[in-house]
Structures are given as structure tokens and as C-alpha cells.
Amino acid sequence: MKKGHIFFIMGISWAGKGTLIEWLKQQEDIELEFLKSYVTRPIREWEIPWNIYNFISLEEFKKWIENDEFLEYELNHWLHYYWTKYSDLVENWIDKWKNVLKEIEVKWLRNIFENNHQLKDNITSIFLDISEETLIERINKRWAYMSEEELENRKKSLKLEKKESVLICDYIIDTTHNSKEETLNKVLEIIKSKIK
After folding, report:
1. Element (H, E) at 55
2. What are the CA-CA distances from residue 118 to residues 66, 93, 109, 112, 114 (Å)?
3. Hey, which of 17, 68, 72, 131 would disulfide with 108, CB 3.0 to 4.6 Å?
4. How far is it, in rounded angstroms, from Cα 149 to Cα 152?
């Protein structure tokens, strides 16, 4: 039986992870299962429920924590929880040996390696990076207002994620000056090299 592969997409907020994943879904020459993240934050006006994220309440999240149902979870920017259900990965990869793609936080990659040794040799991690200047520029284009506290939290996250990505990620793609097409093509090249 052919063994599948797990691709973790990580990166700075506003580096284009959501756009990249939507484009990858449209590629007909690769077979990928896309695992959704669960989030406790409010849905944004341009988002479609259950498309990229599963939006649930903080109360539901706490119940799942008690039942130890997560591969990883994170309080993102010190505001809202994002996480991956372990059962989603089991059903789509471990049980079926499919090629799976999932967006996660870079700090949780090390935890996944340490606690799920059976997965380690079948994981490729891709980190999308941007400069702090580009982060602020993209936020200003899409948000009419962001509090100074949240902006500082995002800058702090950016610095921490950059540092961790250099230590643990297989590939780092700086999207600061890349077009969306250039970033997509680089990621496609990586994916195709792993699932020949």
C-alpha cells in the first residue's frame, strides 16, 4: 500500500496561507486532503463558515480539551484558540494513507514531532514568511481599525515565529516580494517532489 504524506503549512499572519490553500484546492494534478482548523474567534465578514475554518464556541473548545481530542492547539495572538483535531488526521491519513495538507502554528510542530513519532518521517513543513513592514501594510489594507495592543501582539508573534521556523521547518518561503503565483508554484514544486 502506498504511504501518504503530511504537509504542514505555517507562517506569519497575513503571509497568504489562506489564499495559498484555496489555490491548492483548485489544482487538479495533485491529490490532497485538506484538514480544517477549529477556531473560537468570530467569523470575519469575508469568510465562509466551514470553508477553511470550523467556528465553534469557547465552551465547546474547553469540552474537547478535557477529552484530549487535539493534535495541537494554540491561543493565537493571545486572543483566540486555533486547533487541529487528532481524529481528523487519523481518519484522513493514518487510516487511509492519503496526502494531507493542514495549516498549523509553527510552535506546535516541535510538539507534534515529540509526541507523535510515527508521523515524523512523513511530514514536510513549509513556512511562509513576510517582513514586519509588509505585515502592517496588509493589515491596513484589510482592516479599517486594529487596536495598538493587537498590532503589537502580532508583531511579537511575527518575531517568535520567524525564530522558530529557522530552527525546525523544512522550507521557508519569503512572500514579501513574491506574487501569489510565485508562492503557489514554489509550494507546488515542494509538494510534487514528495508525492511522486
Report:
1. strand 53-55
2. 24, 12, 14, 10, 10
3. 72
4. 5
